[in-house]
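Would you mind writing out the residues of a protein together with its fold in token form for me to study?
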Amino acid sequence: MRLYTGRGDQGTTDLLGERVGKDDARVALLGALDETTSTIGLGRALAGAARTKELLIEVQRDLYKIMAELAFVVEVRPAGYTLGEDRVQRVSELTDELTAAVPLPREFIIPGESVPGAALDVARTVARRAEREAVALANAGQIANPQILRYLNRLSSLLFMLARFEDQQSGATPLRAKAAE
């Protein structure tokens, strides 16, 4: 079995139900979400806490569901390929749990106190970029499910808290962005 077909050699690809240019904004968002789940995978591989790994697998599965939903044109999308409000609620609850358990300084912090925390901070910034691309598509009327934007907005907060949790687990204290005077 070959991994490539050659069909995209002229700069086009398939959404499920339509052939589009690889520079289509929907394809760009799918790429940003793929990059997000890959950077989350790096953070998961580096994480020291089993709980972090479990939660990141949940998130990666959610992102694949979002990608599947966005890969279909509306007319042919199966009903089961829609992210529900329950997933937004789950990410919100997890973020609240971590926020209650991990003390944070009141100031901005500099990422990089632990390797897994730094990797999750990179994943957070990639998730924010994917969110910005999703907002642009939603504003253009190309994303109908409001739960996608809500989920992506919450995801960066969860990744921030998981990064701080991993810092804490490694014994590191967040470094404040502003130097003491």
About this structure: The beta strands are 12-15, 18-21, 109-110, 175-176. The longest helix spans residues 115-139.
